[in-house]
From TrEMBL:
GO terms for molecular function: hydrolase activity, hydrolyzing O-glycosyl compounds. It holds the Pfam family Alginate_lyase2. GO terms for biological process: carbohydrate metabolic process. It comes from Aquimarina aggregata. SUPFAM superfamilies: Concanavalin A-like lectins/glucanases (SSF49899). Residues 63-87 are annotated as: Disordered. Residues 62-245 form the Alginate lyase domain. This is Alginate lyase 2 domain-containing protein. PROSITE patterns: PROKAR_LIPOPROTEIN.
Length: 249
């Protein structure tokens, strides 16, 4: 009987020793791989195009890249990764700001809001826009839009226009009648701004410029659904580069 007890005690000691070793090894491994460990951290301030881009903002949108006539990438952005396509790119920087680039006239990198709305709706779209890098010298590209499913063009485009020194301004290109020639209203000088567009039963109001600006689209001719867009859509040749944040739509 005594020998049997001794064997059991030895087995128990061996089990406790083994368990202690396994727990110690696990804690050491977990500590060495903690979330604060900068393993494979990107060297630049922007994540690579392979970095995952997700969140409520992009989950509500479709990514559109390349020239519209050649566009084959209007796919829902279901936690998609950063992408390059036809001299255009979309990614997210280290501060979770969305980064859009496009090169060449009529090229684009944009997010389109999935859900359209009718003429009788009341909707708002707000975003902080920063034009950076080579984009500051661009002759003209669109950063925000109010578009329609049916028609020859958007009801509203907020565009950035810069000179060779990187001095720029934002303007609103708009039309009250579908298919009509665009009218223009200068919003503000500079390379950044926070703009809020309100659509209220066909009356469109833009806040964020030097003064609030409003216009009303005609009832006839806008038979499709309206929807929002943001990013970089080149109206002229050159390299556009915008950073869009604080999007609410």
């Amino acid at each position: 009987m005594i020998k049997n007890v001794k064997i059991k005690n030895e087995n128990s000691n061996f089990f406790r020793s083994s368990l202690f070793f396994l727990i110690s090894a696990f804690l050491l491994l977990a500590f060495s791989c903690s979330k604060d460990d900068p393993i494979d951290e990107p060297e630049s301030s922007e994540l690579s195009v392979n970095a995952k881009v997700s969140g409520k903002t992009v989950d509500k949108a479709k990514l559109q890249m390349g020239k519209p006539a050649k566009d084959k990438s209007n796919k829902p952005s279901e936690k998609f990764k950063g992408i390059t396509h036809d001299d255009a790119s979309f990614s997210r920087d280290s501060k979770n700001v969305l980064v859009f680039k496009a090169k060449g006239k009529s090229n684009r990198s944009e997010l389109r809001y999935k859900n359209g709305f009718s003429q009788d709706a009341k909707k708002t779209f707000e975003a902080k826009v920063q034009v950076v890098g080579e984009g500051k010298k661009h002759g003209g590209f669109t950063v925000m839009q109010l578009h329609n499913d049916i028609g020859s063009g958007p009801a509203l485009k907020i565009e950035y226009h810069g000179d060779s020194k990187g001095n720029g301004y934002f303007k609103a290109d708009y039309r009250t009648k579908n298919g009509a020639k665009n009218k223009t209203h200068r919003l503000k000088d500079g390379t950044s701004g926070t703009f809020k567009i309100t659509f209220n039963k066909r009356t469109v109001t833009i806040k964020g410029g030097d003064k609030d600006f409003s216009f009303t689209v005609e009832k006839n001719g806008w038979d499709g659904k309206f929807y929002w867009k943001t990013g970089a859509y080149n109206q002229k040749s050159g390299q556009s580069h915008s950073k869009i944040s604080n999007i609410s739509w």
